Amino acid sequence: MESNQRIVIIGAGIVGASLAYHLASHGAHVIVLEAQAIASGVTGTSFAWIHTTHGNADPTAHLHSAAIAEYRRLETELPQLKIHWGGALSYGGEAGNMPPATLVSREQICTLEPKLKHPPEHAWHAAAEGALDAVAATHALLAGAQAHGAQVLTHTPVLDFSRDGSSVTGVKTAKENIAADLVVLAAGTATASLAAMLGATLPITTSPAILICYKAPANLVQGIISSPQMEIRQGADGCLLAAEDYLDDTPDNQPAAVAQRTAAAIQDELHGATGIETELACVGWRPMPADGIPIIGPLPNMCGAYVCAMHPGVILAAVVGRLASEEIITGKAAPALAPCRPDRFSAPK
Questions:
Q1: What was the pLDDT predicted at 159?
Q2: Which of 10, 108, 158, 251 has the most CB atoms lying inside 10 A of its own CB?
Q3: At 178, is the pLDDT very low, low, confident or very high (cuts 50, 70, 90)?
């Protein structure tokens, strides 16, 4: 598949970067516009656990199930993309729709995560799962796109769109007007306001979550540990990352206070964690479609505009980047993306 389409992608998070890489790989002339810095939005505050877990009734379960294989594919294409496939250990919560996992004994748990103070009698171990540095991965994808001729312009907000009747013909920035055959809205929580500029209503809310980074000794955690006490992993630079729910904006639930409580829980659960220190505690604002299903596809009643908004963006970035780029290049709708179409919000009831 080759294309000479001029495509502007608005948003340089991991979803926009994946789209840019896949589209540029097919020969499209791609320009990525980012209002701030690369991965400065929710991508930079993601726990970035690559897993296949999904709800039993999730119509996009097939996309989640393909996440690991698609990232494995990207690793072969982009050597600079580094993913730690350390597996994930889960216990103490509801089983739900478990990914392909093995029920392991306490003895096996101690081998997998030797620093656990209170290993449970049994846990689920998903050996195929992993995690990545979402910011570094975004840079790797954009570098791959640039190797195929793409341009990346940061600190370049879109002020308006150029239109010819019901067709989008480009975007307007403070410096220039950029002509395009297709404009892709992949700006996370800003996607709804961009769509509104084109007269489209997309019910996307902001869903907060807390990411905490601790300075910690090396090799505290081998993979990912998910339990009622903590959800943690160790980054390539040795930092210990923790994900926590955002409860409210009261002082006791501010990120710094949550980080202190989480640190105490980690110290209770792990040998050698007594010296961990908070380096970062922040709220990430995730784009959340009203029905929880990704919004991917052409904007209704507006030619030349395509939207790509979802949670979880990091998990789905690889598979959605491939599928969306293929249907953009070929003009043939991808059946796998059928549940995600934006027109489901404008269809008569």
A1: 98
A2: 10
A3: very high
pLDDT digits (tens, 9 = 90+) for 7-19: 999 999 999 999 9
Q: Are 86 and 51 in contact (CB under 8 A)?
A: no
Q: Cβ distance 21 to 12 under 8 Å?
A: no
Q: What is the pLDDT of residue 349?
A: 46
Quickly list H helices, the chain: 14-25, 61-65, 67-77, 106-112, 134-147, 191-197, 255-269, 313-330
Q: Are residues 103 and 19 in the same domain?
A: no
Q: Which domain range does residue 105 map to? A: 88-127+206-288
Q: What is residue 322's three-state secondary structure?
A: helix
Classify residue 325 as left (phi > 0), alpha (psi -120 to 50) or beta.
alpha
Closest CA to 315 of 139, 137, 192: 137
Within a domain: 276: yes
Quote the DSSP letter at residue 177.
E
Name, in order, each residue with C-beta under 8 angstroms of 105's C-beta and a sequence gap of 6 or more: 121, 122
Q: Are both 310 and 251 inside the same structural domain? A: no
Total tally of structural domains belonging to the chain: 2
Dihedral sign (CA 331, 60, 289, 30):
negative
SS3 call for 228: coil
The SS3 call for residue 246 is coil
